[in-house]
Automatic annotation (TrEMBL):
Lineage top rank: taxon: Bacteria
Pfam family, one: AHSA1
Taxonomic placement: Bacteria, Pseudomonadati, Pseudomonadota, Alphaproteobacteria, Hyphomicrobiales
Boundaries of every Activator of Hsp90 ATPase homologue 1/2-like C-terminal domain copy: 21-150
InterPro entries in the cross-refs: ASHA1/2-like_C, START-like_dom_sf
Family assignment from sequence similarity: Belongs to the AHA1 family.
Signal sequence interval, chain numbering: none
Protein name: Uncharacterized protein YndB with AHSA1/START domain
Length: 162
């Protein structure tokens, strides 16, 4: 019999943005916006994506990295306070094997005219899939993608002004 294990990790990532909380929140809440930045690094192919942003709604993303393994993100939104907070619970699978279960909280706090974003994850890594920091690195990568998306969006808005 395979031994069953559960190892725990908690981490937070903080970023400061020039954009108002409503703009940063919208990058998470709008399907088109989130699709633009919430993706794994290349080489990868998105196999499945669904997005239902509401309390009780699900977001799913399946990615093929070309290594014969499908990586599945399956989230359920538990709490949404517009422009202030998002809480979601999610499972990660490799193929059919659940490797972790997490609770993620995204806080959007006014910071002058901008936003202080605090992303906190509480993760349980299952049955030998201990993480050694790769989840934190992956989350840092995604939050960096968000930063780039917000900067590009701000630049596009400036380019459109007369």
């Amino acid at each position: 019999m395979t031994p069953r294990t559960a190892s725990h990790a908690t981490f937070s990532i903080t970023r400061h943005y020039r954009q108002a909380p409503a703009t940063v929140f919208d990058a998470w809440a709008d399907e088109k916006n989130k699709t633009a930045w919430f993706a794994a690094p290349p080489p990868r192919q998105t196999v499945k994506r669904s997005f239902d942003f509401r309390v009780g709604g699900r977001e799913q993303l399946s990615t093929d990295f070309g290594d014969g393994k499908l990586h599945h993100f399956d989230a359920v939104y538990r709490d949404i306070v517009p422009d202030a907070r998002i809480i979601y619970a999610y499972d990660m699978h490799i193929n059919e094997t659940r490797i972790s279960v997490s609770l993620a909280t995204v806080d959007f706090k006014p910071d002058g005219a901008g936003t202080k974003l605090v992303f906190t994850e509480q993760a349980v890594f299952l049955d030998g899939f201990d993480d050694d920091g790769s989840r934190r690195r992956g989350s840092d990568y995604l939050i960096d993608n968000l930063t780039g998306f917000l900067e590009r969006s701000e630049g596009q808005k400036k380019d459109m002004q007369p």
